[in-house]
């Protein structure tokens, strides 16, 4: 009997996402329920955005939740390497095989030509897709151009007619017309694979038997299945999990809900409660109880109990569930968890130097430093009134700072200062002109300890969350402003 093997394959390009944890949890439970193995693979072929810091954050966040894997980049295993960036020669071998068999072809089209073709198709109300221009180049001619060093990608061939039947554990058979499927790029011009080739090759070579992934990948399933067919491999069993939703049913996004796992850790949620809540996303225990442990979920796990209605990720419901967990802790354990969260020596030692010179009695510490131990703040809009900036410019400045901080991967006082400085200069201002906006947003006060130091100590999750809160308090950002300000963002060094 084949051993069940599942996997999670996150990209280390940002904060560890709750959606990643949700999919990881269900893959883990499915594997454990069948006595199988759960693998973690890092999809880091996006060399511009992938970082080792982000990769480490993924490990730390999943382990904080209690999710452990049997094989992966940090624990090893018999099917390594487990980072796609270290598997380049493997992908090239299989890409060359597809070209040799006539299932794929080198494409030399420029970005300008592709844009023009797509624009023409859209103007004619057609589905934008590659028009097969380079598919008709004679193989010998194509190989001569490749050997001469001409820039190219490798594309797969797909049928233009008929339907692909996708078997899904939750939906049964789903029919997708081939006229909706593009000739996917498999190898980029830089010699690195796209998701589609790397995914199929890795899942096959790592012996993955079942793939539980987000339903946003269902429309592109025919490409993956066709690649398995081209290689002559058996495809794994697929399960397309419903996407997490905001309370307004839109796809979960950081614009409306904090999506970083580390945000919830920083806010003081228990990992057991967080994992419990993710387990309730579209799934329920046979007895419908709300509170359960990971071991209990594994013991009663049945993938057919997953509901296709988009599960709502509701911060209020999560907070309620966390409260249930907190109240059931023995009081000694409760005190231990509080200390572990923020009242431990490491965190207090970061704060102490900034507080010591500003107090005359210990009893003054709490009012001065309370924001270091808070999540959201009760903000006063009047604190954001500015001598030089209009209300719109205040929101613009804060939004630009937020966007730049969201892209900041090395979180340090110098990095934060450089971001605010760059935004100020782009608006014809000085650093000191924007600092009066940072104080109330981050500390809830017009003045306090050094706000730049405070931002470094609070960390990226709480800093960004509080900036979002302040922007919403001041009226938020309209779609039109969002579009205009994103153009300004691109010009900031």
UniProtKB/TrEMBL annotation:
GO molecular function: ATP binding; glutamate-tRNA ligase activity; tRNA binding; zinc ion binding
Family annotation (Pfam families): Anticodon_2, tRNA-synt_1c
Residue numbers covered by motif 'HIGH' region: 10-20
EC code(s) of this entry: 6.1.1.17
Cellular compartment(s): Cytoplasm
Binding site for ATP: 254
SUPFAM superfamilies: An anticodon-binding domain of class I aminoacyl-tRNA synthetases, Nucleotidylyl transferase
Entry GO CC: cytosol
InterPro entries per the UniProt record, alphabetical: aa-tRNA-synth_I_cd-bd, aa-tRNA-synth_I_codon-bd_sub2, aa-tRNA-synth_I_CS, aa_tRNA-synth_I_cd-bd_sf, Glu-tRNA-ligase_bac/mito, Glu/Gln-tRNA-synth, Glu/Gln-tRNA-synth_Ib_cat-dom, GluQ/Sye
Location, primary (coarse class): cytoplasm
Co-factor: note: Binds 1 zinc ion per subunit.
Domain of life: Bacteria
Cofactor(s), names only, from the UniProt record: Zn(2+)
Record CDD domains: GluRS_core (cd00808)
Protein residues bound to Zn(2+): 107, 109, 134, 136
PROSITE patterns with a match to the protein in the record: AA_TRNA_LIGASE_I
All copies of domain Glutamyl/glutaminyl-tRNA synthetase class Ib catalytic, residue ranges: 4-320
Role noted for this protein: Catalyzes the attachment of glutamate to tRNA(Glu) in a two-step reaction: glutamate is first activated by ATP to form Glu-AMP and then transferred to the acceptor end of tRNA(Glu).
Protein name as catalogued: Glutamate--tRNA ligase
UniProt lineage: Bacteria, Pseudomonadati, Pseudomonadota, Gammaproteobacteria, Pseudomonadales
């Amino acid at each position: 009997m084949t051993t069940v093997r599942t996997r999670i394959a996150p990209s280390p390009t940002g904060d560890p996402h709750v959606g990643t944890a949700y999919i990881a949890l269900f893959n883990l439970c499915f594997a454990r329920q069948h006595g199988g193995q759960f693998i973690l693979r890092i999809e880091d072929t996006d060399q511009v955005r992938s970082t080792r810091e982000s990769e480490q954050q993924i490990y730390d966040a999943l382990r904080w939740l209690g999710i452990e894997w049997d094989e992966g980049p940090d624990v090893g295993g018999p099917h390594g390497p487990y980072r796609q960036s270290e598997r380049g020669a493997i992908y090239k071998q299989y890409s060359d095989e597809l070209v040799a068999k006539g299932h794929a072809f080198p494409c030399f089209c420029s970005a300008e030509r592709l844009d023009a073709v797509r624009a023409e198709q859209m103007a004619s109300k057609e589905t934008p897709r590659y028009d097969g221009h380079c598919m008709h180049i004679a193989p010998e001619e194509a190989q001569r151009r490749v050997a001469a060093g001409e820039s190219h990608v490798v594309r797969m061939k797909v049928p233009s007619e008929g339907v692909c039947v996708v078997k899904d554990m939750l939906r049964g058979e789903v029919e997708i017309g081939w006229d909706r499927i593009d000739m996917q790029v498999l190898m980029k011009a830089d010699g690195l694979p796209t998701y589609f080739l790397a995914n199929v090759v890795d899942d096959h070579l790592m012996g993955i038997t079942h793939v539980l992934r987000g339903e946003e990948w269902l429309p592109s399933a025919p490409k993956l299945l066709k690649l398995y067919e081209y290689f002559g491999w058996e495809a794994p069993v697929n399960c397309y999990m419903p996407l997490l939703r905001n309370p307004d049913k839109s796809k979960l996004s950081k614009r409306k809900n904090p999506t970083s796992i580390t945000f919830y850790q920083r806010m003081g949620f228990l990992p057991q409660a967080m994992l419990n809540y993710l387990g309730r996303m579209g799934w329920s225990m046979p007895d419908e109880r709300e509170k359960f442990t990971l071991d209990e979920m594994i013991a009663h796990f049945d993938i057919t109990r997953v509901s296709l209605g988009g599960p709502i990720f509701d911060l209020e419901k999560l907070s309620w569930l966390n409260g249930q967990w907190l109240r059931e802790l023995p009081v000694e354990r409760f005190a231990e968890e509080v200390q572990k969260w923020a009242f431990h020596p490491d965190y207090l030692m970061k704060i102490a130097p900034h507080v010591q010179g500003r107090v005359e009695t210990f009893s003054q510490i709490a009012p001065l430093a309370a924001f270091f131990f808070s999540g959201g703040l009760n903000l006063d809009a009047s604190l954001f009134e500015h001598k030089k900036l209009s209300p719109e410019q205040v929101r613009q400045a804060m939004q630009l700072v937020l966007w730049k901080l969201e892209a900041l991967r090395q979180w340090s006082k110098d990095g934060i200062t450089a971001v605010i400085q760059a935004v100020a200069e782009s608006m014809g201002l000085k650093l000191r002109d924007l600092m009066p906006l940072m104080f109330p947003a981050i500390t809830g006060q017009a003045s306090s300890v050094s706000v730049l130091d405070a931002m470094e100590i609070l960390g990226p999750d709480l800093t960004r969350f509080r900036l979002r809160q302040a922007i919403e308090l001041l009226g938020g950002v309209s779609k039109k402003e969002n579009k205009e300000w994103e153009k300004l963002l691109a010009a900031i060094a």
